[in-house]
Design brief:
This protein is mainly β. Helix content is 11%, strand content 30%. It is built from 1 helix and 12 strands; from the N terminus they run αββββββββββββ. It has one helix at 2-23, and strands spanning 43-47, 56-61, 64-72, 83-86, 100-103, 118-119, 132-133, 151-154, 159-163, 176-183, 186-192, 198-202. The strands form 4 sheets. It has a 6-stranded antiparallel beta sheet, with no helix packed on it. A hairpin with a 4-residue loop joins β8 (151-154) and β9. The chain is globular.
Length: 203
């Protein structure tokens, strides 16, 4: 009985110790309740202020139905859930400045493309508008997947997404925040010098 009690106490102590260590991880991304974001867990992306629009989702743009663009709802609503997959698949904690794949796991579009985020156009070109769309690939970091990697970066009051991949040392690419472009009544996510400030809510 004493042995079982000792093992149980040791197990509970190890869990508490892990939580204390994680709480001291200053680079970990936190949700609106102060909990650490984790890989593969579903979250809603919500803007810092309610008058900045709602959550994120996929939508067709103009005459083109596929691939679909990542858009922000006009009104304050949670949108669709997303999941994060860090470049090191063995790391379960989502940290700032770490390369991530981002996916809409529950979105249905009727399109053949994956629901993983990517940027449109040549990532090395500064002369075009880079919209955020679906159709990316998870994993396999390198030149062929350069457009699919994003980062979460702390702002003064919240967080922002950034496209500035570190998965290819020899690649040339645009390094910009993810902001909003208002076009044809839609709020499309786009690489921009003005970031959309966001927080995260666990689904």
């Amino acid at each position: 009985m004493k042995t079982q009690f000792f093992l149980l106490s040791l197990f509970l102590f190890s869990i508490l110790l892990c939580e204390v260590i994680e709480a001291q991880d200053t680079n970990a991304v936190l949700d609106i309740r102060g909990k650490i974001l984790r890989a593969g867990v579903k979250y809603y992306v919500v803007p810092l202020l309610q008058d900045q629009g709602g959550g994120l989702d996929l939508a067709s743009t103009g005459r083109q139905s596929c691939p679909q663009s990542v858009v922000q709802d006009d009104v304050y609503w949670w949108g669709n859930t997303i999941q994060f997959y860090p470049v090191n698949s063995q790391k379960g904690v989502i940290r700032e400045w770490i390369d991530l794949n981002i996916e809409f796991p529950d979105a249905y579009t009727g399109c053949p493309e994956s629901k993983v985020w990517t940027i449109s156009g040549d990532p090395s070109s500064y002369d075009i508008t880079h919209y955020i769309t679906d159709g990316g690939r998870k994993g396999n970091p390198g030149q062929q997947t350069l457009s699919n990697w994003f980062k979460i970066v702390k702002t003064t009051n919240a967080y922002k997404f950034m496209f500035c991949p570190s998965v290819c040392d020899d690649c040339s690419y645009v390094c910009q925040d993810v902001g909003i472009s208002k076009k044809r009544g839609q709020r499309r996510l786009v690489l921009s010098n003005t970031p959309l400030e966001i927080n995260f809510r666990k689904a």
